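lol so apparently i was supposed to do this last week
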Amino acid sequence: MDIRVGQGVDFHRLKEGLELWIGGISIPSDKGAVAHSDGDVLIHAICDAILGAAGMRDIGYHFPDTDERFKDIDSKKLLVQTLDLIRLEGFKLINIDSTVCLELPKLYPHIDAIKESLSNITGLEKGRIGVKATTTEKMGFIGRGEGITALASVLVSAD
Ligand code: MG
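anyway here it is w/ magnesium ion bound
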């Protein structure tokens, strides 16, 4: 079986008064991500991991933030389109693991809803989707609440 690993990382600045999207759901928060799209840092990291596993460049290459078609776009659509792109090249997503780093709000109560959302978008069963959350112990830009980061790893199989 031809299996490929991919990794992705994404960062966004956080600003008061914006909506916070993580894994396709809106999380109650004082701050949200500053972005051309809806700023869903987790979905962006997952898209990059999937594209990387398939050797197909990155999210900025396929969905440039200078393109008005992607302004304020629902990142769930980017993930669906990413899966379509790799499928055309004969790849299939096997599993996702991921970590979101942010100070506030606590993601713990939302993890299951995020997994459900990612399962609905990707068609993967929830047991094949890992979503973890961590803080940086108040250190650095994440600890000061200035930004959010997500990291993702995936496996894809090639036909
Ligand atoms: Mg992004």
